[in-house]
Design goal:
By secondary structure, this protein is of the alpha/beta class. The chain is 37% helix and 21% strand. The longest helix has 17 residues, at 119-135.
Length: 472
């Protein structure tokens, strides 16, 4: 398969009229647009970071300055990661922490994270984590960064710098923790900040970084961490601030049995009731995990349009359970995918999460209830809904952003996939992206990260990670 070629043009006039990028000759182009069009031998044109046209053999493509061949490939919208903790790849698969449920796992890791985190650590972890995501076909990632020790510096700026260097579309959240162990929470005292400081920093980061324009590469959300690390008063105040600033809200929600038990014992209500009582039951918000809602709560979440970041791997590794993703989607919730932190999910592969979401859906809802197309929707337009960017991200349509994943369906792994490339893409594998295009620019090409800095960043990451993982 030809990876790409640079066409020769007859004259400067032709060159000036050409679009910046053309992806052509796709075995199948799955648009995931409102009509769910699937185009055989499809092509897509991108100019100034925006999709300008797309078609199939019946429509001739425009001239282009650069052409990517998608021969033998499935082309999809770029995948969207709606929940992550990028810095946690510094304690990935750390043996003392690998066999604990959520609360014990967090209490063991908080001291390691708090003592060692700084701007260099967050920048390097974000760079490596986002590179890993791009290799899995992810073009937009959120990040829930809630750990901000006073001595650590500007950690949000550090990860935004990493995303900008890589060319990743990024939705970091300014997360927060205010309820320490001495006040009945889980985090140690040096991991939390005063609530007035949190609110001031929240406003400052939105004003500095949040881009409201169509096709924005960086947007900020506000993200108090969880019921066991912030007060209801901070949740309410943050919701009011988000309303005034017109930004989105994110938190962990109904994550596991311990989460349920803590909310009942501390607040006298279940996590969903607490969520509503602090003003978060709106379509401005999206929650991570949402493993434990009952049927009545699912209906309420759906009616309100609350988004859900479904994190299949993490929920299983921490023994939290399987989220009722299909029920939530049917009820009206935008349901996206999240890798979650690399200390629990360990792998940052959106393709892997999409496959596991499909398999879990078949397991809990029936083989005919979940398929690869539905999982593709969750990993694209579902994530766009969580981030408040429906119609702009997660689909291949004129006017949407030029974020595209190209998947090579050739070789032994896909031998015999003749009938349905989309089912083959997710049922076979594991696989990674052949090309990842973000904002009309190739970030992954021929299965390899375009940036020449990967080896240097991996070496630096290994050195930093040794600080976080004491021997023995």
């Amino acid at each position: 398969m030809a990876p790409y070629f640079e066409p020769d043009f007859m004259n400067d006039r032709q060159n000036s009229a050409a679009v910046e990028l053309l992806i052509q000759n796709a075995e199948l182009l799955a648009t995931v647009d409102p009509q769910r069009r699937e185009l055989r031998n499809g092509w897509i044109a991108i100019d100034n970071g925006i999709i300008t046209d797309l078609g199939d053999t019946g429509q001739p493509p425009p001239m282009a300055k650069k052409v990517l061949s998608a021969s033998g490939c499935l082309v999809t919208p770029g995948l969207i990661n709606s929940h992550h903790h990028l810095w946690q790849n510094l304690t990935r698969a750390y043996t003392p922490m690998t066999s604990q449920p959520l609360f014990g796992w967090l209490q063991s890791l908080y001291p390691l994270w708090t003592a060692n985190i700084d701007e260099e650590a967050v920048y390097t972890a974000a760079w490596v984590g986002l590179a890993e995501l791009a290799l899995s076909g992810c073009t937009t990632s959120s990040d829930h960064h809630y750990l901000h020790p006073k001595r650590a510096g500007d950690l949000l700026a550090a990860e935004i710098k990493a995303a900008s260097e890589l060319g990743m579309r990024f939705h970091p959240t300014y997360g927060s923790m205010s309820l320490s162990q001495k006040d009945g929470g889980l985090p140690p005292d040096d991991a939390v900040l005063p609530e007035d400081d949190i609110l001031a920093q929240s406003k400052s980061h939105v004003e500095r970084w949040h881009d409201r324009n169509h096709g924005a590469m960086t947007r900020i959300a506000l993200a108090p961490c969880s019921p066991f690390s912030v007060t209801p008063e901070l949740m309410k105040a943050t919701a009011e601030l988000a309303e005034s600033l017109d930004v989105r809200l994110h938190t962990h929600l109904a994550e596991n049995v311990e989460d349920d038990e803590y909310a009942l014992a501390t607040f006298g209500m279940r996590p969903i009731d607490l969520y509503e009582s602090v003003g978060w039951m709106t379509d401005r918000t999206w929650g991570a995990h949402v493993v434990m809602p009952n049927d009545e709560e699912i209906a309420r979440l759906g009616k309100a349009g609350v988004g859900v970041a479904h994190c299949p791997s993490s929920n299983m590794i921490l023994s939290s359970g399987i989220a009722p993703a299909l029920k939530l989607k049917t009820a009206g919730c935008p349901v996206g995918l999240g890798c979650d932190g690399s200390s629990s999910a360990d792998a940052a592969s959106l393709w892997q999460e999409a496959r596991l979401a499909m398999l879990q859906g078949k397991l809990v809802s029936g083989a005919d209830a979940m398929n690869a197309r539905l999982s593709l929707e969750i990993s694209t337009i579902g994530g766009a809904g969580c981030l408040g960017r429906s119609g702009e991200l997660g689909e291949l349509s004129v006017g949407a952003v030029g974020d595209v994943a190209v998947w090579n369906l050739q070789g032994p792994t896909f031998a015999g996939v003749l009938d349905d490339p989309i089912e083959g893409w997710l049922r076979c594998g594991p696989t990674s992206a052949w090309h990842t295009v973000i904002n009309g620019k190739t970030v992954v090409e021929n299965g390899t990260l375009v940036s020449p800095e990967l080896d240097e960043k991996l070496q630096r990451h290994r050195t930093i990670a040794r600080r976080f993982q004491p021997a023995g």
